[in-house]
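For anyone still unconvinced, we reproduce a single protein record, the chain in one-letter code, the fold tokenised, and leave readers to judge:
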Amino acid sequence: MTIISFGERLIWGAELLRKAGIESPRREARLLLSQATGRPIEWILAFPEANCPSATPYESYVARRRAREPMSHILGTREFRSLCFEVSADVLDPRPDSEVLVGSALSLISDGEKPLHVLDLGTGSGCLLLSVLRECPAAFGIGTDISEAALVIASRNAKRLGLAGRVRFILSDWGEALDAKFDVILTNPPYIPTHEIIGLEPEVSLYEPRLALDGGVDGLNSYRAVAQAVLRLTARGGTVLVELGASQAEAVREIFARGGFPDPQFEYDLAGHPRCLVASPSACK
């Protein structure tokens, strides 16, 4: 089939995506066509009859999306808190749920001009740490990850956002490579039970890094490791914020309470679900 106009290409791509079970096939086809041709979506909608160049990666993009590769991997970016982050198969996609953690951290920082030290364990794309630093111009951050590829992407995101001078990214298994104290510690650890990963959406189970998903048999392995790691890394008066998986809140609270964090509290999402645990070690009270 010869496809000539932008409108024809859009219809062709949307139909293939629809048959593949994509929820919003026409919207995604527009995004892919815009990415492939460099034309804004508004232009494509205004001039559907315009001739569309044949030598574009549009067909390749559609094929990848039909295979359920995430849109963010095809486009190369994902928005989080109105900031644009580079992403790939080497990092977990930033998710709206994580905005609760960032918002909670910022609400605890009464003075954005205070020279705080912020740590992000398992930083991935760097979206949590960089979002906090963007709002706190005097803060300095360190992000750790066990994946060198993830640290490369996090570093590029810091440069993209103009924050490279206030952040360092370090190869480390949680906080093992660190010997410092931090005022704010953030983490979104892997929390999916191993046996549940195969049942997730293909965009997640097939394309996102297993290191960033797999929380072990009960989904709590990383929480146990984090609770132990942050006990020695939290400054006096400091706070630890941990993203929570579904139905894990009480189990995680018990892990931290037993690990030297008395009276951990929850922060909730708009649906009323606990999405973030907030705690301070007893020595920091």
